[in-house]
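User: Predict the complex.
Assistant: Input components as received:
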Amino acid sequence: MSSQLLSANHAAALATTLAARANRKGKGFVSGVYPITPSTECMEYLCNQKIEKGRVVRVESEHSAMGVCIGGAAAGARSFTATSSNGLAYMVENCIAAANLRLPVVMVVANRTLGPPWNIWADQGDALLLRDAGLIQFYCASNQEVFDTVLSAFRLAEDGRVMMPVMVNMEGFILSHNVAPVEIPQQGLVDDFLPLTDIPHRLETVPHTLGQVELPHQNECHRFQHHTAMLAAAAIYDDIRAQFEPIFGRALQGALVPYRCDDAETLIVSMGTMGITAERVVDDMRAAGARVGSLRLRLFRPLPVDAIRAVFAGKKRIAILDRNIGLGLGGVLWSDTRALADPGAVVQNYLTGLGGGDVRPEHIAKIVADIAAREISGAPMLMEAV
Amino acid sequence: MNDVCNTAAIFRQGNTNCGGCGMSITLQMLRRAVGANPVHLVIPACCGAVAGGTFPQSTYGVPTIMSTFASAAAVASGLASVASLNGEGTRVIVLAGDGGTFDIGFATLSAAAERNEDILFLCYDNEIYGNTGGQRSSATPQGAVTSNTLEGKLEQKKDILAVMAAHRIPYAASVSLAHAEDTQKKFAHAVAQKGFRFLHVLSPCPTGWKSEPALGLELVRLAVRSGLWPVYEIFDGKRYTVSIEPDFSDEALGLYLSLQRRFQKSGLTAADLRPAIERNWQSLRALSGRIIPGKRESREG
C-alpha cells in the first residue's frame, strides 16, 4: 500500500489500470476512450499505462467509445470508459445498449453541465439522463472514494448476479481535478479482490445472437429481470464491502453515508461533494446546539429506498439539495426521495450549485435556516451559489 | 475454395428475408469463404438485424451481436481487440447495409479504417433504407424513386470505394454476386487478410427496387455489363485492379433500368447515365493503369 498525490481523474484511471492488469490471465482489458473536459485526464492517464493483455482504443466519438466497450465485453474482456456532459449525452444510445445487453462495462463520469451554451463546470444532470437506463450509479465525494468505488465497480458489475454497467460519478473540477493523497494497493491485492472477468453470455464459438429482436412478453421479462438484478445489487455491494476491508485494510463506503443523523430533527440530503460540505455545516451547527444531520447518497441506482426511509424516519425537516434540475418538475434527487419522508414532514428541495456554482458552507447554512422557518413544504427553490 | 462448404450455414433456413434478397446470397457466399475459421459477426440495425428472427431462435449460425445503428465498426473493434489480445484466430466480420455504412455508420467506419482495425466490413448495398420501408440513402442512385424521394433522387450515389481507398486500407473491393468465382476469390482474400478490409456488394432488393425477385442476379449482371457497377479491387489504397471488363452495352443499361420500377417515374434512360459512367471509368482506367477507352466501339477485339 502506498500513498500517492493524485487527481480524482488519475485515481479513477489508476484503479482501472490495476483492475485491467488483474484480468491478464483472463480475457484481458479493452477500453474505448475519447477526450472531453473535465474527464480527459482520466483517459490520458489510462492511455499512458502499460497493461499486459490490454488495449485502449482511441476512437472518434463517445458513441464509439462505448461501442468498443460493448464489443470488448461481448467478447469477454473487462472494459471501461470515461466521459462527461455532452460526451455522455452522445454516448447514451450505446450506454443503453450495454445495459440491455447486460455487459459489465465500468464508466467514470466527471459530471458537467450539458450545453450549449457551453459550461464546463459541475452539474449532475448529465449522469441523471441515464437514471432509468439500467446502469448502476454511484456518486463520490473524495479522491479515495473515487479510487475505491471504481475498483469495486468492476467487482460489482461483473458479479454473475448483477452483470450490468456501473457508472461512477465525480463532479467535474471540484473532484476530477482536485489533487489529494490516495492510498494505492499493490497489484497482488487487487488480484485477490477482483476475480477474472467471466461474462457467461460472451461470444465464443457456439452460435448465439446477442441483442436480436424480441417480442413484447420476452422484452418485459428481460426488463424485469434486469430490474430485479439491479434491486439485488445493493446487498451484493455490501458483500463486496465486507471483502474489501480485510484485503485493503480500509473500509469501502456504503450506499448511504449518514452523518450525525440519529437524533437530528433537520436533515440535509445530497449527492457528491456537497455532502462533505454539509457535514462541516452539521458540525458547526451542532456546536451551536442545532440538531442537524447530513445524509449523503453514494448509491443512487438502485435507489436504496428502505435504507433512506429508515434515515428519514422521525425527521421533521428534510432539505434535499440537487445539483441538477429536472426541468418541469424539480431536482431529481428530491423527486425520487421526497415520498420516503414521514407524513407531515417538511421536505424542501433546494436547487443549488447548478452549472458549477460553488456550494460553500454559508450556502448550506442558509438552506438550513430557510427550512427551519418553514411550516409546510414549498415548490423547489433555486438557491444560487454565488 | 469452392469445396469448403461442409460447415454449417452462417445464415440458416427460416430467416425472414424477402425472396431474392441479395444479402441472403452474400451470406451464403461468405460461408464458403470463411470455411472453418471462427467468426464473430456484428450486425448494426438493418434488415440483417431483423432477418435473425426473434429470441431465442436465431438465423445466424455463428456467434453474433446486434449493435446500434452507427456502432458496428466500433463494436467490431472491441471484439477484434479481444481476439488479438488472446491470440485467437477469430475473424470479426461486420454485415451492414448502406445506411449503416454510407450514412449513420460512416464516422465510425472511417475511424475504424483509419486505425486499420482487424475487421472485415461487408456492406450489402441495396441502395435504400430497406428496413424502414425504402427511403433514400446516400447510396441511392440518381433517378431512383424511394418512399421519400417520390420524383426520383436528384443527387448522385456516393462513391464509397473512393472514400475507403483514401483511408489506404489493405483491401477494398466491389463485388458482383452475378460473378460467383470473382466474388469467392474476393471474399476468401478478405477473410484471410489482416487489417481493415472493405467489401461493397451490390445487393438486389426486389421490394425496394420494385423488381422481380428471380431477376436479382440478372440485374447485377446487367449493371456490371453496362459499366454502371464497376467491379474492381484496391490494394493499400493505391493499386487498382479491374476484376471484370464490362462491354458497356447500352442495351444492358436500358434493360437494367426498365426491369426496375424504381427508375420509371424519373424517366431515366441509358443515355442519361452514360456520361457519368464514362467519367467514372476514365478515372478507374487511370487509377488502374490500364488506359483503355471506355467505349465498346473503340475496344479492340
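Chain A has a mean pLDDT of 98.
Let me know if you want any component modeled separately.
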